[in-house]
Amino acid sequence: MMFAVMAMVAIGFTACNNKTQQGEATDSTAVAVNVADEEADAAIAMLTSNLEANDASKFQQALEAVKEKIAEFIKTDPEAAKQYVARVQGFLKENADKIKSVIGDNAAIATAVAAITEVEPEAVVNGLKEKVGDAATDAKDAAVNAANEKIDEAKQAAEDKANEVKDAAKQKANDAIDGAAKDVKKGLGL
Questions:
Q1: Is pTM beyond 0.70 here?
Q2: Mean of per-residue pLDDT scores for the chain
Q3: How far apart are the C-alpha atoms of 160 and 163, rounded to whole Å?
């Protein structure tokens, strides 16, 4: 038992040392693609085991996990998303007949499979990026419009206050003139 633990520790150190050396030589895109490949392998293994077990509901759950992973990759690294989609699509296309035999008439699963397999990886990523970009643009426009409305409201409030002050000053001046005129009339006996 102790020997097995020591062997695992040695393998771990070796793997860490290799990653450090490789990390210096590879760029972030290559790392992301490797992560996408590893995730795709895991997804394909899960899909394969569900197909071999003829379990349509578990296969559907695995497809949902694939869609979630695609969305996650799109948020973090679109290049990794393309790689992941391409790998999963290849598996689904290669095993289309087996999938049909397992899912039968289940429209939900057929739709999920079609959603993943019928589009190009580039289109999936670009389409979702455009939606995100449109949402960001809409949010920016809404913020700018809200800021402009606040500025307009502040300008109007300042103008209103200035007009009030001006009107109050006119009123005081008129009252002062009227008071002076009354004083003059009193002095003249009028």
A1: no
A2: 74
A3: 5
